[in-house]
Structures are given as structure tokens and as C-alpha cells.
Design brief:
36% of the residues are buried. The longest helix has 14 residues. By secondary structure, this protein is α+β, with helices and mostly antiparallel strands.
Length: 249
Amino acid sequence: MMPVPTYVQNRDESDLMFSVCSLVRDQEKYDRLLESFAAHGFTPENSEFLAADNRRGNQFDGFDWHRHMWPQVRGRYVIFCHEDVELVDCGHDDLVERIEALEAADPQWLVAGVAGSPWRPLNHSVTAQALHISDVFGQDRRLGQVPARVESLDECFIVMRRLKPVLNSYDMAGFHYYGADLCLQAEFLGGRSYAIDFHLLHKGQARADESFTQIRNQFRAKYRRYFPGRVFHCVTGRVAFGGGWFDAP
């Protein structure tokens, strides 16, 4: 007997506006995140919260945790954020407004965040930034202009549409450069990345440890085959790809 097929309809509808996904190692930090989102309009009626559990060790890394979360998300928009992010003066309605404005300005957007490096800056000797954020470097910081198209995004807060997912590379691992990798994957898909004006507090501290250098080298070696000669701007600094298609994988 032939199986009965399931017919899928193309519908961009959901009872939930947001799926808020976090990579969690510290429960106390995550609890503060949940409290801040609840205080700024993210309710059970419009949002769901999902956590990739690294509390007892690294089951997930920066490059693979999005893929593990994606089959479970139900929101129209999917937020991937660090556990040490807290909302301060922008909330649910503000984010919906920013996303709708971005959609109207550029329907080809695929990835958005709160801090990034502007697209193809004229001066390659420095790393320009476009952001509105509070972090360890200062309160209510503004650099450049937002919204703005960017080459790469900081991983602390990233949002995309559920029906237009962008996933990280399968041949990389670790906790650095996965935001930059995500933006380059969006380029491959024919889309663009943006920094939007959604002010929040990020309590994390960037650590340029040994793994940072290792992953940076892997990132450069991978993308030099696809973007030979390109100087790529990340929030952590420039990466000169160099090389060409003939480089070994």
C-alpha cells in the first residue's frame, strides 16, 4: 500500500513572534536574561525560550549549536544570543519595528545583529564598527551609523527569519568567528547582513586566547579559497584572506 504523502504549504505564519535561543553555561546569568526579556515585553504569548545546555560541559560549540536548535524553533523570527545579554531600554515591540523597517528597506536581509563591521569600508587599515550597545567598553556606546549593512556581526545577539535560515559551516568548530562565518554563509546564499539599532547590555568579555588564534587561522584558510585577496572586517579585527582557488583545502 502506498504511503499517504504530507503536502507542505508555504506559509510564513506563527503564533509566536520570536524564538529566543541561548547557549547556556551559567544558570545565574541566564536567569537574568530571562528576567530582562520578560520585563521588556517578551511573553509566553509572543515568544518561546530555548537553551543549548553547556552547564556541565561543552556539548555544543559556537558553530553547531544553531543547527541543534533549529528543528525545535517555532517563532517567526529566531534570536541567537549569549547568556550574558540583558535588555535595558528596548523590547519586543522595538525589535519588531526594527525588523519590519529592515524588511522594507532590503528584503534580501538574512542576518541582523546589534554590532558589526560596515560593509566594504574604504579604509582597510582600521576596523570600523556600527553599533549601539552597552558593554565592558562603555555604557550606551554608539559607533558609526545603524542600521547599516555589515560584513560581519558580533555573536552576542543575532536574529534571522525562521523560514530563511542561515547555518554555520560544518567544517569549523569552536567559540570564535562563528558570527563572521554566518555572515559569509549569508553572502553565499545571496543575502545580506545588517546591524540594527536595538540597544542592549552585553556583559561578556572577549578573550583572545590560543583558540582564538587557531580558529582565526582556520577561518582565513577556508575563505581565502572563495574570496582571494579580500580584506574582511570583523568586530575583532581585520582578516586578510590572500591566496586563491589553488590553495589546498
